Amino acid sequence: MKIMQGQGVSKGIEHGTIYFYHRCAAKVEKRTGAHRQEEEARLERAKERSARQLGEMAEKARAEAGDEAAVLFETHAMFLEDEDYLAAMDELLEQGFNAEYAVQQAGEKFASMLASMEDSYMQARAADVRDVTGRILNNLMGVVEGGIHADGPVILAAEDLAPSETIQLDKSKILAIATQKGSGNSHTAILARTMGIPAVCGLGEEFNEDFHGRQAYIVGETGQVILEPDGEMLASLEARRAKQEETRELMRTMVGQEDVTLDGKQVHVYCNIGSPEDVASVLANDGQGIGLFRSEFLYLAAQDYPTEEEQFRAYKEVAAAMQGKRVIIRTLDIGADKQVDYFHLHKEENPAMGVRAIRICLNRPQVFRTQLRALYRASAYGKVAIMFPMIASVWEVKECRRACQRVMDELTAEGIPFNPDTELGIMIETPAAVLIADELAQLVDFFSVGTNDLTQYTLACDRQCNDLGKFFDPHHPALLRALKMTADAAHQAGIWVGICGELAADLSLLPTFLAMGIDELSVTPTAVLPLRAAIRKSIAKTCTLERLNS
What we know:
alpha/beta; eight-stranded parallel barrel; Glucose Oxidase, domain 1; single chain; eight-stranded mixed β-sheet
């Protein structure tokens, strides 16, 4: 028996085969003297495979979200037949270059040509060409999209996972996650909690590719990876797995129940999601709304700025799927640990306090305008609310509101439908926002506290640093007092306040949240039913604020 110790970041026990993740960044080599007919045949097979993939994706999108959702994949498939695009490849093949180099160069040439055009629609097609080019190259080089080339679900193992990688992974193939690096606040951890699967981070270099293909148990509560358990340990693990399934069955009885305490205090239990595909989990777990839709998934998964149409389709899909329940969409929140190459952000000594989130949007008004137009257009198809992250000053909120008004004026002039009463809110995740919450509350419809960043900034602890351990304390009285100040300011101004950080799912703090009068808790979908069960057993009027004392 071998036990490796890491940090448990998502609860649960799972057993399966360890699969070490291999990144898709295959390097294109430039070769001359290639046999033209062989290279043409290879390219033709790659194009055919790409066409099949795009056709399957279009059918899946049409079945799940309608014709409009399928258009993107059908547009990509059209490029596989574009004469100019294919001619650029043929020219390089004729010169004796290998197929990979011909595809890469032709794709970049064609994409650059489109990007340089004055017509905005044609400019937007540059990203489509790059995506199609990448797909052909993957099929030429045998790269498996999503990085998981396995017949069935596996324990996904890696050194660590970047946000852009977690967005694109085939989540149906993941039983559990185990990584060398990372922390409880990493995107790997957030992904695991969203999926409701066990995860262990920070296992160190001892956990390496030598374990690829071996059977293991992942124990999220204890942070252990256990290989070849002895008889006693095996019996214990299987008993805990059985108990886990029994608890899940019990939680399913909470479906359809109200989120209300025994003495009638209503608490809205919403969900945090990272992409439209997470909506299925929200509905399966009976989430009453979406309290945080991280819109950056569109930017992380793209090779160029996502267009207004691409964003509109994603926001509309989620809004329509939630059938009138509130969907709070956070505007672009990149920077710090979420880097996007095509933004060309300058390297910063302290990116967590640098140009990120709303600061990027206000510095790049055209990027902000594109997103706001897509958001307001989507508001015609559901109960959409817009939330601005990383707010620290009153002037920032006023500038955001002015940007919203300009977009509404544009849409009105163009005759495009939208909801003029779309709620606007801000994330409270800086100490500055807490201290001026009374002023900020006069400008918005709601507050949502991002406890991950608020803890980081309040305690001066980097949330990505696993070594800080006990110093990163989300139960710190200073943080809880900040939450109370925020709630008081919101209620005095007549607006509602929620929590969308990881702390919202902490059942040990539920009595404190009830005593504060928190109106909404937004959690990962799999945390909805346990939280509902705890709310329904609580008596709000007996809850106290004793946790606020040191």
